[in-house]
Design brief:
2 domains, extended, alpha+beta
Length: 108
């Protein structure tokens, strides 16, 4: 075999197209406000200020690198981040109790 031609014995497979494993269902703020208002039986206009302040505090905590421990939502922390032209990309790791742990806690 000459040095001019190097043939790979095991060619790399073509990369698979990246796709989300679960199609994203997006919950917009308007629908979120409606759901919260319905759950607590308070008009949406009154809920808006509290929800917006809550979201602002969550965003600030995440931006400062704090771990969020908010049951029953779970425990969330930033696992990776990078800055792009479009803004900052944060990858969060969310740990939630499984069904078994939740049932055990409810029984206690």
């Amino acid at each position: 075999m000459s040095d001019d031609k190097k043939v790979a014995r095991f060619p790399r497979p073509a990369p698979a197209p990246s796709a989300d494993p679960i199609p994203a269902r997006i919950l917009h703020k308007r629908e979120f406000l409606t759901r919260v208002a319905h759950q607590v039986n308070v008009p949406r206009a009154q809920i808006r200020e509290v929800v917006e302040a809550t979201l602002e505090q969550l965003g600030s905590a995440i931006a400062e690198g704090e771990t969020l421990a908010l049951p029953p939502f779970g425990k969330a922390r930033v696992s990776r981040q990078r800055t792009t032209k479009g803004g900052e990309v944060l990858i969060l790791r969310l740990r939630r109790k499984g069904a078994v742990e939740a049932q055990r806690d409810a029984a206690e």
